[in-house]
């Protein structure tokens, strides 16, 4: 039974049997397990017994929206991914923005549960006309942006949200992520590896025709407007004007910016890689999430340096830190480039940054050598070597 904010149905896809089914739940469950993470926690706890490993077909991958999903509340295209992940062997709940959470609701579902494992690479397509498990052999090895383009062309659907795995997820890299809508990533605890273990390359959800039920739409819109105004003006409008990377210099001045694998907290070049630099030196254009006007996400074109002309998603703070200060790299263009390459390969930026930083520190101290890195010189700040090592890891 649907209640305000919910569609009242869950889509279950058994990849082993290729069976697709709908399930309903009552209002009491909705109040006990609120939102996408609540759904995920419930189904993970109920259906995955102790001792089941992350790559066991009995593990679940739950993708779910919350009661605000698909409304006019800013950012309500967000969704949660809940599973048991390979980094810890324990539960994970990780979120991504974009459109998929809203589009899932518009197709009539609050959550999608993937269970079992396919015998070959597939992708799941959800639309008003039904659910398909489609062959994805032609997508094998493709990065997350190329997968997006290929599925859009194949389905011929304009309003479509595609989230999937890159080479890292296919090769079960422990910190593989699920990335989609060309710039949004559910990154923590290897959910991309879980998806890869189930042989699912992507999930493609059309913008359906259903509408989210709201008990008092006028009051909700008033509350959404107030929430947006608070977010827009918080800290003097820093997030609205500069994105999350606009806080990087504050982190440097406060002494909590991670620098050179945490061997120091001194990074005088911080103003060369912050959000202010990106938005004043590079070409940018808005690339908003569902129902959001926050100026939080942009497409950026690098206008200087070795990566001049490269176009990608504007990085978040964590990406600029991971591919800037963590590895001793001081050029914004290189950090933007590496951030996007990492997203396209389908890996969590934090874990990737720590691995690169560890490699560079070990190289500096002679613990690992050029021979260990197949000839790469893993010196601090070497963006070309970082690029090459990320690709080696993912493949």
Features:
13 helices, six-stranded mixed β-sheet, 395 residues, single chain, alpha+beta
Protein architecture, described:
The chain has 395 residues and is an alpha+beta fold. The protein is 35% helix and 19% strand. It has helices spanning 27-32, 35-47, 100-106, 144-155, 167-170, 191-197, 217-242, 248-254, 275-281, 317-322, 332-345, 349-364, 383-394, and strands at 9-14, 19-24, 61-64, 79-84, 91-96, 111-115, 122-127, 130-135, 160-164, 178-180, 184-186, 200-206, 283-286, 298-301, 311-313. A six-stranded mixed beta sheet has the order 2-1-6-3-4-5. A six-stranded mixed beta sheet has the order 8-7-12-9-10-11, sandwiched between helices. Strand 10 (178-180) and strand 11 (184-186) form a beta hairpin. Helix 11 runs parallel beside helix 13. It is globular and about 60 Å long. The model has no long low-confidence stretch (mean pLDDT 96).
Secondary-structure map:
Layout: E1 9-14, E2 19-24, H1 27-32, H2 35-47, E3 61-64, E4 79-84, E5 91-96, H3 100-106, E6 111-115, E7 122-127, E8 130-135, H4 144-155, E9 160-164, H5 167-170, E10 178-180, E11 184-186, H6 191-197, E12 200-206, H7 217-242, H8 248-254, H9 275-281, E13 283-286, E14 298-301, E15 311-313, H10 317-322, H11 332-345, H12 349-364, H13 383-394
Parallel strand pairs: 1-6, 7-12
Antiparallel strand pairs: 1-2, 3-4, 3-6, 4-5, 7-8, 9-10, 9-12, 10-11, 13-14, 14-15
